Amino acid sequence: MRSKVVFRRLLHNKQARYGFIALVLLVGLAYVGPFFGAYDWTDKDFMSFLSPPDGDHWWGTTSIGQDMYAVTLRGMQKSIVIGLLVALISTGLAAVVGAFAGYFGGWVDRVLMWGVDLLLVLPSFLVIAIISPRLRDGSWLWFVALLAAFSWMITSRVVRSMTLSLREREYVLAAVYMGIPRWKIIFRHIVPNLSSLLIIDATLNVSGAIIGEAALSFFGFGIQPPDVSLGTLIAYGSGNATGYPWLFVFPAGLLVALVLSVNLIGDGLRDALDPGSNL
Fold first, then answer.
1. What's the whole-model pTM score?
2. Of 70, 147, 177, 249, which one has the greatest count of Cβ atoms within 10 A?
3. pLDDT tens-digit readout, 118-131
């Protein structure tokens, strides 16, 4: 019943509708668009270097003859996947750590929150910049793990504070008296009642991860060649933005559109899940 109410409220939110439509179109462009192009992202046209957009190369070509349309869509695919994976990992970690700290209290709470405070004071950009070069020969999933490792701490504190209240509810106390293991109580009764917060956090974490990946890749600490992402393409095109604007405009424009659409959906979800909001 509640899900129907939330869905109806979400549909009545114009910004959320526009964001959802834009996101569907962008994801469709990223994963279906390459099938309509004449070139693969690894292909090189040695007769066309730094060519402007035309009938053959819709978004122009790079300095080594790669089709910008195919390369940019490949980069958007990688950015979308990274954003989703980082959001799932970081939100899941925040839910588990915050719920366990709030429910068990005592030394468990102190140890977990000490770890959270330690990660909060570490300069995440600097740490990732130091570690990522040592993982250049490894999988890009290591980069996802690094981004997720510094994206969950604030949410975990919010989850902890909400768990302190939830653990005193009647249904939780009843489960304790029935002898249900505490870890099952956390996953059956505590975490599901935090779903509104976690859904909003995961949605907004997608856009945050996409921006974080783009920023780190822009400075050479993220996705490494020969693979591409929107961040690496923006870094490549920024030096030629005036002379060859298609190298910069298309990846930068898609990055802005992608982040904006996710943020609009996140804002719409926040309003739809808030009983006190008026849509």
1. 0.88
2. 147
3. 988 888 888 887 88
